[in-house]
C-alpha cells in the first residue's frame, strides 16, 4: 500500500531526483576508500578528480598539501601517487612483486590493447619480456654490430649538422638519427633523413606523444564510451596511431613475404619464428597483433626518450659553455680528433659520463613513471594500497629529491663525481625507473647517449644564436621536453 501510494503521488521530476540520489549513493558506496587509504583531494561524483591535471608539476603541488603519498580518482579508478626517493624505492624495489601489472588506460588501450611489452600484464608480459631481453642480447646490446650501427648513424648525423647553413632547430634531425637505430633493430634497415614517408611517420608519433599529455585528451579516460563519438584532439591521436600501425603492418608483411627462419635479420624475423614456436601456447600472445604493438612499443619508447635527452643535452651545452669545454677537453685527451668514439672509451671518460647522467637527471624526460597496478594488497609507508589500485611514481621528485642531491635545482655534473674525479654511483638516479617494470631498453639508451653525445662534441662546438636566449623551462607532453630552440654549429 505504501509503495503504491508513493508510486501514484510522485511526478516525473521526483522520480528523476530519486534516481540521481540513488546513483550518488551507489557512487559513494562503490568508491568509499578503505581503512588507512592515502588522502587526496575530494573527487567529484562519477567524474572523480577530472579537473586535476596529470603532470608532475601538479603532483608536486599536491604533495605539499597531502604528503608524499596521496590518492586521486581518475574516471572509475583509484590511483596512488608516490613521491620522494625513499618511498619510490619502497614501492618499486621493496615491493618488487606487488606492482608488476599494467592498468587498462582507455586512451592507450584502444591501440596497445594490453599487448606487447609496455602495456601487457601477467603471462603475456612475462613471455614478451623474456623474448625481448633475449633478442636485445642477440641482435643488440650483446653484439658489436649494434655499436657499429650507432657509430655509422653518428656519422650521418654529423653530416646533417654540417650541411646546415645557419641557425637551426635540431629536433627533427636528432629524431631521425635515433629512430634509425631502432629501425635497424626492428626492420633491419635505416631510413634516409629526407625519406618523406618515414619522416611523416616520425612526425605523427611525436604528435601522439604531445597529445597524450594534453588535459583535453586525457578526458577520454573519464568517459571513453562518450568521447569515442565526440570530436577533439583525442581523435587526432587515434588517427595518427592508425597511420603508424598501418606502416608497421606493411613492414611486417614485407618480412613475411621473404622470411627465412634460418636467417633472422631483425626483431620482426625473430618474432615470426617465435610465433611458430608458440603455436601450441596461444596464452603467450605471440601473434601478428602483438607483433604490431611490440614494434610500436620499441619505435615509440626507444626514439622519443633518447631524442629528448639529446635535445636537453644540446640545450645545456649552449647554456653552460664552460661544461661543454670540459667535455671536449676530455674527448680530445682520451679519443683525439681523428678516431671515432667507441663504448670502450667510457671507462676513461668519467666527466663526460657524469655530464650525460646529469643531463638525464636535470632534463627529467619521463617525470611520471608509467602507471602500474597492484596485484595484491600491500603497504607503502603507513598507508594501505589495495589490490587493483593504480600506482604512479613521481620520478621527477626522485631526481630532484633535496635529501639525495646536493644542488637538485642546478645543472651540476659534480653530482656524479667523487672527490677524486671518479664516476660516482647515485641510488636516487632513476631516469629509467626501477624494479621489474623498469625500461627494457636502458642499456641500449646508454649506448646511444654516450656515442651520439661524444661524437657530436668531438666534431662540433654548439652555441646560442645571436639575440636568442633559449629557456630551460620545458614543455609537458607525455614526456618533458625542451621548448623549441635553435643552435649554431661550428666545426672543430
3D structure, described in words:
There is one protein chain. The chain is of the alpha+beta class and 492 residues long. It contains 18 helices and 10 strands. It has a 4-stranded mixed β-sheet, sandwiched between helices. Strands 4-5 form a two-stranded antiparallel sheet. It has a two-stranded antiparallel ribbon with strand order 7-10. The mean pLDDT is 91.
Q: Give the proportion of residues in helices.
A: 40-55%
Counting structural domains, the number is: 2
Helix/strand order, N-terminal first: HHHEEHHHHHHHHHHHHHEEEEHHEEEE
- The largest beta-sheet arranges its strands as 1-2-6-3
Shape verdict: globular
CATH topology of the largest domain: Cytochrome p450
Provide the residue-averaged pLDDT: 91
User: Could you give the count of β-strands?
Assistant: 10
In CATH, the architecture of the largest domain is: Orthogonal Bundle
Tell me the fraction of residues in β-strands, as a range: 5-15%
Largest sheet report: 4 strands, mixed
Look at the structure and name the CATH superfamily of the largest domain.
Cytochrome P450
* Unreliably modeled segments: none
Instruction: Specify the structural class.
Output: alpha+beta
Topology diagram in text:
Layout: H1 2-9, H2 12-30, H3 56-66, E1 69-74, E2 77-83, H4 85-94, H5 106-112, H6 122-140, H7 144-163, H8 171-187, H9 196-212, H10 215-218, H11 224-227, H12 233-257, H13 267-277, H14 288-319, H15 321-334, H16 350-363, E3 372-373, E4 378-380, E5 383-385, E6 390-394, H17 395-399, H18 442-459, E7 460-463, E8 474-476, E9 480-482, E10 488-491
